[in-house]
Amino acid sequence: MSINQSGWRPKMTAANGNDAAPTFTGNRALMLEEALIFEIGDTSTTGVDFAEGDVAGSRLGDLSRKAPIGLAGLSEPETIRHYTRLSRQNYAIDLGLFPLGSCTMKHNPRLNEKVARLPGFADVHPLQPVDTVQGALGVINELAVWLIELTGMHGVAMSPKAGAHGELCGILCIKAALEKRGEGHRKVVLVPESAHGTNPATAAFAGFMVEDIPATADGRVDTDALKARLGPDVAAVMITNPNTCGLFERDLKAISDAVHDAGGYVYCDGANFNAIVGRVRPGDLGVDAMHINLHKTFSTPHGGGGPGSGPVVLSEALSPFGPLPFTARMADGHIQLIEEETAGDDHPDTFGRMTAFHGQMGMFTRALTYILSHGADGLRQVAEDAVLNANYVLRSLEGTLDAPFAASGPCMHEAIFSDANLAEGFSTLDVAKGLIDEGFHPMTVYFPLVVHGAMLVEPTETESKAALDQFIGALRSVAERAKAGDTALKSAPHFAPRARLDETLAARKPVLVWKEPPLAQAAE
Ligand SMILES: *Cc1c(COP(=O)(O)O)cnc(C)c1O
Hints:
The protein is an alpha/beta fold. Among the domains are: 152-357, Type I PLP-dependent aspartate aminotransferase-like (Major domain) (Aspartate Aminotransferase, domain 2), CATH 3.40.640; 376-508, Aspartate Aminotransferase, domain 1, CATH 3.90.1150. The chain contains 16 helices and 12 strands.
């Protein structure tokens, strides 16, 4: 590509190399082609006009710049248009259904945003005297009460800032409890094969050794294998319920009893709480610690790395070890922040502190707004509708795609398919890429690892039947093409700004820095 001195965006080849009816700009109607900012700009100029200063001599001395700074040299409107055009290439939950499994990408009610932006919540500072932020602390406290109520647990640590951070919080509570009992020698954490990668990573990070527990053919934890492995070296088990195959772990209570009898603790990965909220209380299943991804179960826009919030509910046995600070409502209604200084007597066994301040205030406000606007009956309906929608997807597509656990009964919040009946040479990746041409973000692929070529679809409760029908139609059409051996699918997507990329090369040798091409090429 040439460096374009005029700032006019150069003509680009269509993404699929198909020049049948190219446009002058490379744009296709409102789908605008976009080059790198350095390719549309000019590094030898600046986009800003500064008058020459009449200051005598520079005060920077040796530090003054000797060569141009190498910015793209665009004017303000050109810069804004570049980033706006790029932003329009994002797929978002506000554009269409986002079928990613395990991520719970649901509609985020605008009411939550409105409340989170109220100045009394948005403009407070964590170092303000507690007397001046009683309302904000009240939100944290009230949300804590709801989370304890919904989970049937004893206490909650509000400060962790993501699901994975919550896992670490829970496992550190378990570690502190074992040390207090003089059983710090228990070093093994048992994790089912289907677990999210953060589970073994958390246990290893906290200094434990991770051992896999196999799954049964119906996609659940092999309870007998788990029980057989329990013993004096086992610190805890980490179980996801509902699990990442979209199935309820029916044996969890029996597993918890066996783990407790053997002296260990039960960590539950609560990322899928969306499917059981208002219906099942993890505390009744013998869970000792469970994180709740507020950004999954209780809305909040997420994706692209944040924001997250992962409060951890704790059993009576683990609550004394939870982190600081936390809020407590005093008899006179005043909310106190229990910090190190005050904790000496009240909370001597705390393992310490996980975050600088109290947690993600904006997300607490959104989650509490979501909970209060749904009410107890509405939250129960969230779970019922999420499960209904996933089963509709599962039953609509089981004749098209292989559904490995369809025979085990209804699924929970997500439906899982495999690549088993695609034509020779066609893969899950081809189906995912084909969905992009249909205007959908692909589902989660190749996870969980226990299913070959897994396609994990989580529609969530916020999709209508019409939206589900359109998605099902698109996925069925792409799957039929993959079963019929339609070779065009091998190079999909054809209608996206960029066609099939070499993702392995991109991951192994990412090119993250733009280099100015040599002059000869630039003049081309
Ligand atoms: C999302 C997820 C996590 C990690 O949560 P983050 O908030 O992304 O850190 C852990 N386990 C499961 C099953 C998940 O789906």
